[in-house]
Amino acid sequence: MKKYDLIIIGSGPAGEKAAVKAAYYGKQVAVVEKRADLGGAGTNTGTLPSKTLKETALYYSGLNERGLFGVDKELERAANVRDFFFRKNQVVEQQEQGIAANFKLHNIDTYIGTATVKDPHTVVIEGKDAAEIEGEFILVATGSYPFQPPGIPFDGKFVHDSDTILNINRIPRSIVIVGAGVIGCEYATIFAVMGTKVKLVNSHEEILGFLDREICRELTADMEKIGIEFVFGSRIEQVEILPEEHTSNVHAKLTNGAPIEADMFLYAAGRSGASHNLGLEALGVEIDNRQNIVVDEKYSTKVPSIYAAGDVIGFPALASTSMDQGRVAVTHMFNFWGDEKISEQFPYGIYTIPEVSVYGMTEDEAQKKKIDYCIGRARYRDMPRGRIIGAKEGLLKLVVDRPTRKVLGVHIFGKIATELIHYGMDLVQNEDTLGRIVSRVYNTPTLHELYKYAAYNALIEGHYMDEPTGN
């Protein structure tokens, strides 16, 4: 039996970064991955594929350049599904190769097969690289899988979850997407831009309930402009798949009794932790009702030698936070220096078309906390750079503590919002004031000028202009 300092089950964002950190400090590390391809959902079915499809949809639709240069580009032929997935497949393959090279560089052993935790220090592997290995510590980083509501006939052809939608063999004429969370909204805009008729069904009366409501309204309005139809306050029931000769292959009823049909259905109704069949509960590891592993602030379970990180522990289930959770778990296992906890606040990136990214306090939260606040806004279309790139929509919004002029939150809707947010994140973390923002020099023309003009707008809205701006 080969012995390791650390055995990691799963090679996604949490598993990869934990493995490399431990190996960097000289620990002997093994990674067990059930798939033939490394990278987990982050590489193969989630983060990278959907974001690459977004860029593909923008390219084939010409949406970003439409009407800007006097002559719109035309493709020689209509894009088919092979074209649609071409770039996605390239990016996934390159990322998988990068992870494999990273493991090889750090002398990390990789086992392909299904893992079972036999005891607090032993993992049994079945499959291609069958073995029984021993580790001082075990990190479970098995990720999550799409939740499939009971009674829905998922067939991977007409009725999909967020994994199988990446295996479609045609671009549908119409699609019903159930669930208006991050995944549902991202795919809704991707398919709509590609020319698919999209209906987005949500049991609540709005999308993305954690967003600042003004930003949410901006996104909703833009989704409607590209043809997305919203069905709020209702659920899908009585789903039936019809033979292929029918115009619409999937027929269903809403809970209000109204019929709804489309070529395809996509259920984006949340995800559950992939903790089943690992043998963890028999060892005393606590697992909640969504199959998420329960951990403490050090990512340790109730079994001292077994840790867990990433989507398998539930919220926030982001690739970005999962990476740091894996690193922090390793820090506590071996008492390494640094990375003792991840930041309590972190940016959200939503890769709709256009993007949304947020950090810090929303206006709604400021109201609930009875904070004396003011708002600063700047729109893309009013910036020179915004005019150059033809941005018709886009908003940067600052939430500011009025007495101190400190920035409490930054909320962006528009192109490359997920890139622009990091400067806003620093503003909030450093407790920067409006005076400091307007006193800095920014490259022009750039979209970062949005921050300066939003700050000036906040100075006006907060009635500061007759007072010294200070620092």
Low-confidence stretches: none
Please summarize the sheet with the most strands.
7 strands, mixed
Structural class: alpha/beta
What general form does the structure show? globular
Number of strands: 22
Mean pLDDT: 93
Which topology of the largest domain does CATH recognise?
Answer: FAD/NAD(P)-binding domain
Determine the fraction of residues in helical runs and give it as a percent range. Answer: 25-40%
**What's the structural domain tally?**
3
Under the CATH scheme, which class of the largest domain? Alpha Beta
The CATH homology group name of the largest domain: FAD/NAD(P)-binding domain
In whole angstroms, how far apart are the ends?
Answer: 63 Å
How would you characterize this protein structure?
Residues 4-326 form the FAD/NAD(P)-binding domain. It is found in: Cytoplasm. GO terms for molecular function: dihydrolipoyl dehydrogenase (NADH) activity; flavin adenine dinucleotide binding; NAD(P)+ transhydrogenase (Si-specific) activity. Its EC number is 1.6.1.1. By secondary structure, the chain is of the alpha/beta class. The protein has three domains: 2-145 and 272-334, FAD/NAD(P)-binding domain (3-Layer(bba) Sandwich); 159-269, FAD/NAD(P)-binding domain (3-Layer(bba) Sandwich), CATH 3.50.50; 354-461, Enolase-like, domain 1 (2-Layer Sandwich), CATH 3.30.390.30. The protein has helices at residues 13-24, 40-44, 47-61, 81-105, 182-193, 213-225, 319-334, 363-368, 384-389, 417-429, 434-439, 449-461, and strands at residues 2-9, 29-33, 109-112, 114-119, 122-126, 131-140, 144-146, 159-161, 174-178, 197-202, 229-232, 236-241, 250-254, 259-262, 264-267, 271-273, 306-308, 348-350, 355-360, 373-379, 395-401, 406-414. The termini are far apart. The model has no long low-confidence stretch (mean pLDDT 93).
